[in-house]
Amino acid sequence: MKSDRAASAKKLRGIPVYPDIVIGKAHLVDRSRTKILYQCFVNDEHVDREVERFEEALETVEAQFISLRNKMPDTLKDQAFILDSHLMILKDSMLRDSTIDKMLAEKINAEWALKKSLEEIRRVFEQIDDDYISNRISDVENVADRLLRTLSGDTHHNLSDINQRVIIVAHDLSPADTTELNIAKVMGFITDVGGRTSHTAIMAQALEIPAVVGLENVTSLVEDGDLLIVDGNSGTVVVNPEDSDIIFYQERKLQLEKYKSSIARMSYLPAETPDGHRIAITANIEFLEEVTAAKDYGSEGIGLYRTEFLYLRGKGFPDENELFEDYREVAEIMRPAPVSIRTLDLGGDKFTSDIAISEENNPALGLRAIRFCLREPEIFKTQLRAILRASAFGRIQMMFPMISGLQELLDARAILDQVRDDLDREGIPYDADMEVGIMVEIPSAVAMAEILAHYVDFFSIGTNDLIQYALAIDRVNEHVAYMYQPFHPAILRMVQQVVNAAKNAGIHVSLCGEMAGDPLCTSILLAIGLDSLSMNARAIPLVKKVVRTIPMEQARADLEQIMRLNTASEVRAYLLRQTRKMFPELQERGYLLD
Q1: Mean predicted lDDT score pLDDT of the chain
Q2: CA–CA distance, 273 with 583 (Å, rounded to integer)
Q3: CB atoms closer than 10 angstroms to residue 35
Q4: Secondary structure of 342-385 in the HEC alphabet?
Q5: Are residues 276 and 222 in the same domain?
Q6: pLDDT tens-digit map of 15-43
Q7: What stretches of 228-285 show up as alpha helix (H) in DSSP?
Q8: CATH code of the domain in which 60 resides
Q9: How many domains does the chain have?
Q10: Residues 6 or more apart from 414 whose CB is under 8 A from it?
Q11: Whole-number CA gyration radius for the chain
Q12: Would you call 512 a catalytic residue per the annotation?
């Protein structure tokens, strides 16, 4: 019998991961943390035994991950790299060596030493001002949780044992958990934590399972067997829905399926307005494995290849050949379409012990991206060599992140010229005409755009960081995140200023932030005059639909009205009205949220 708590409908809002709608019964997964007991030993033999016990747990968990990887269904074969990254975490010195050192130095038990190591790693990741990178802490926590359960003898809840169709409700699901899912039985899942770039989200997308993450406390609001509606398009979850809710979402699901089919047919058509204006639509990717999906969704190239993952999945930095093989394969798959590779955008002190850099109080404004690369030219040269070598196999473009002024750009280009000279002396082929650009994501770069434009082949506007820096907003701080406003008049004027500077210099300009994939923003970005937009691949069909529907003349008229408005809320309200007029189906299908 259900408690009174579960009797009334509740509507929750989280982060949508895979755009589909499902209705079914909840299966609550207990992923509560293993209780950790503190023990301190006097006898060195006991400490040595703890070290042996920890190493045995490492071997056991490693065997589990290898077994899971070998048994992965065909639908997940392209995501095997995620379990590979878990295996690397097991061997990484930040986890393994640090834990053993603590046991030996403090004479404590394995569980407590592992807990202390994990806390240190969390503190490091909390300093990283990048959504994708900061979300990787969940992978470390998943590995540590498996180790703790193994050490304590806890039995693992095997999701493959589920024998009826359910929606999984969990605090989090590790990639290892996700590989165990019985796809025939699991209709979808919802979690307390997670983000769009978490490995849980990536696996859900690969499996095409409706999912909503980041619901914060859904596990405390849902009981086993509750009826759920999961809208993976809008991020809405309804707990114990009314009959009217069920009817509404059943109809929405049918409409969404028809609409997705109709716009999918449009994804391979050019992004051209009814009055003949063309704009290139490209994809953002994090991993080599995402390239095929980008092509499937109609991408006309890779507008942003974030290269940080190869630097995070192992100990220290990847070598030149590892980078080269990755970049070459991306270039070959996309050829003749362009691939824009962003050079390393990380603070190196966070990921290697080989370079001694003091801990920073504010890493978002510290030694990161191009600043770090200029500080450590040998690391920078290794990546530049790999990019140049790969340029012989496709149409690669390269861009430097976080450029704040001309001197940084000149210094970066000087190192690039040194690398070119080295390759020439060694007789190694590369594209001598490879285009070189910069990310415009700092207000000072916007102010200097007229000057910077004469030293590059293209601009790529990174609005995620530009908005954060221009409005002084930490977008992951729950107290001020509501102020993160892409429709702020200051942001629109900055984008327009950069585009005008590029046009005056005769170079092309793209935009690769979240704004690019937002259908509300499409008409503005068209009218401002961007040459290309780069976005999550799944957003491409809808953005192409909007482009092919709005005449350029109307987009320019809308922009004229928008630039007279004074607040972000006024701009957004105007765009909602105009978009609803032209695309009422977007409101009906949950694409436009008030």
Answers
A1: 83
A2: 15
A3: 9
A4: ECCCCCHHHCCCCCCCCCCCCHHHCCCHHHHHHHCHHHHHHHHH
A5: no
A6: 888 778 999 999 988 655 566 777 787 67
A7: 243-264
A8: 1.10.274.10
A9: 3
A10: none
A11: 25
A12: yes
Place 572 in a pLDDT band, splitting at 50, 70 and 90. very high
Report d(CA 159, CA 164) in Å as an integer.
Answer: 11
Closest CA to 212 of 447, 28, 20: 20
Verify that 314 and 340 share a domain, yes or no.
Answer: yes
- 283 and 395 co-located in one domain: yes
* Domain that includes residue 351, residue range: 271-563
Give the CATH number, domain containing residue 544.
Answer: 3.20.20.60
**At which residue do the structure tokens 């404004």 appear?**
365
pTM of the predicted structure, to 2 decimals: 0.68
How confident is residue 130, by pLDDT bands cut at 50, 70 and 90?
low
Selection from 521, 524, 475, 536 nearest residue 496 by Cα: 524
Min mean pLDDT across 161-175, 334-348, 354-368, 406-420 is at 354-368
Are 206 and 254 within one domain? yes
Could you say which of 277, 373, 488, 512 is catalytic?
Answer: 512
One domain, residues 238 and 336: no
- The H-assigned helical ranges of 80-223 are 80-91, 96-106, 110-126, 131-134, 137-152, 175-179, 199-207, 218-221
Nearest-10 crossing angle of helices 199-207, 80-91: 160
336 near 391, Cβ under 8 Å? Answer: no
Helix (H, G, I), strand (E, B) or coil at 444: helix
> 213 and 81 share a domain?
no
511 contacts 566 by C-beta, under 8 angstroms: no
Q: Provide the token pair at 55.
A: 């190493």
CA distance 233 to 255: 12
DSSP state of 275: T
Task: Tell me which of 27, 86, 171, 199 is the catalytic residue.
Answer: 199
Helix, strand, coil share of the chain (percent; to 5): 55, 15, 35
Q: What angle do CA 334, 319, 127 make, to 5 degrees?
A: 90
Residue 73 has what DSSP assignment?
Answer: -
CA distance 266 to 542: 9
How far apart CA 83 and CA 212 sit, in angstroms, is 22
Helices (H), 427-521: 443-447, 449-452, 463-471, 489-505
